Amino acid sequence: MIRDLYTRATGRPWLTVRSASEEFGPTPGARYSDVLDQYSDADLYAFGDLIIAACVAADQAPTPDPATR
Fold this sequence. Notes:
The protein is mainly α. Helix content is 61%, strand content 0%.
């Protein structure tokens, strides 16, 4: 019943699915695809958490200021 009322009121179909990437941003696989492509599936299964942690740490590392060189 709610589905029909929503469709009539908005003209759009009732959808109950949500998109995690829209709510939380890209997945690690999408964000670090250039790095992750270097590893085999076996490496990613065995050491995936360490590899992703290294990618995140590299993203959060401060970039050197050229003025302080």
